[in-house]
Amino acid sequence: MNTVIAAVVLLALLGIIFGSGLAVAARKLAVKTDPRVDEIEALLPGANCGACGFPGCRGLAEAIVKGSAPVDACPVNKEPAPIAKVMKVEVKASGRRVAKVRCAGGKKEAKERFAYLGVSDCTAAHELAGGPKACEYGCLGLGSCVRACPFSAISINENGLAVVDEEKCTGCGKCVSACPRGLIALLPAGEQATVYCRNMDKGAVVRKICRVGCIGCGICVKQCNAGAITLENNLAVIDPEKCNQCGRCVEKCPVKAIRGGAAETLPQAANGN
Amino acid sequence: MVDLLVLSFSTIFISNFVLARFLGICPFLGVSRKLETSLGMGFAVTFVMTMASVITYGVQKLLVLYNVEFLRTISFILVIAVLVQFVEMIIKKASPVLYRALGIYLPLITTNCAVMGVAIINVDEGYSFIQTLVNGFSAGLSFILAIVLFAGLRERMEFAPLPKAMKGFPIALIIAGLISMAFLGFSNFNLQALFGL
Known about the structure:
The complex is a heterodimer of chains A (273) and B (197).
Chain A: H1 2-28, H2 35-43, H3 56-66, H4 81-87, E1 97-101, H5 122-127, H6 144-148, E2 154-156, E3 162-164, H7 174-178, E4 184-188, E5 194-195, H8 203-209, H9 219-223, E6 229-232, E7 235-238, H10 248-252, E8 258-259
Antiparallel strand pairs in A: 1-4, 2-3, 5-8, 6-7
Helix pairs in contact in A: 2-3, 2-4
Chain B: H1 2-14, H2 25-30, H3 35-65, H4 72-94, H5 96-102, H6 113-124, H7 129-157, H8 169-183, H9 191-195
């Protein structure tokens, strides 16, 4: 019995001594943290997904307080207003960004080079002699992006193309890194004119392999009155900051590579022409 | 004095805690990507090991006094955990950069078998107070030696033309094994010749 008492008393004593020692040290060595960091952390979703680019929700809270991140940096948090109130700033409508798969050349429009019977993964297919699609820049439709999306916002349509549901997309960017061809980009949501092609081969080559691939003719560049379109490497590129969504490029593109605005022109419901 | 030097030498080179005793592998592999963080980790571990050795020496005397030596494991762990918490607070205050760089590996020093190992070895070998102090400190130095050596090699490995399957962790493990084998060369060291015994 003596041993038991001795054991309990000894450990309890050690615990108390060390505990109080630590408590004193904690007060003396306290690092002053801004209370706003805790407030903002509580307002964030707490998923620690890292989509904002910071290490977890606390990382973002610290960045917001420091000023290196805007109050609406969290793509999962749909209400930045309470955070803006803590920081005593106005919420600027910085525009929601969603992922877009910039390829409209599905089974109906683009040619295949060979029948691919390998692993159903885009990276694997891409590594095999450049992929089964004649266009080495286009969407392979094997679903690596679908699997990467934590919100089930991407799916492969019947035409064999990956398509994003803009309502579900939070702009986390996981699909962007999953695509081996860099086809997916985060662009402003809604009726934004986008070039649905990333092929940098010459127009004549593109014409042979895909009906809707950009041939670098430059008609869109001339049509744009905002100077938002440039031609780089036989490919039209639209700067979303400059685009005023007039839609002239969409109208005038001879191969219908530029789409945006009305839903009928998006690859999702493309009936090909 | 010479016997303390011999003790120190053998702990650092002959029975290197990481490379010969295979203790403390977790931070050894986890923090050794960069040289600066490795050094920071090494210093933290050395501090914890030295302080833990000293305090556990006292605790062991207490346990023997009250006939409760079976409490050794739990009371030692208590001491180590408290020390690590203390070190964490100091590092967080002194260098937030190092604190963030060490990340989760700092609290992991608590469960690090190397620290517990040195405390238990001190007791089992029946070292006096000064021997305990020297052994604890040398154990820390042995850890620093191993991790700094390893970090230097790993930094070089980043640029080596390796097969993709070997990059990163696999080659690190192989290198660790090779260094351990190299340190076996110290095993029958002629201490008499070195220290003039």
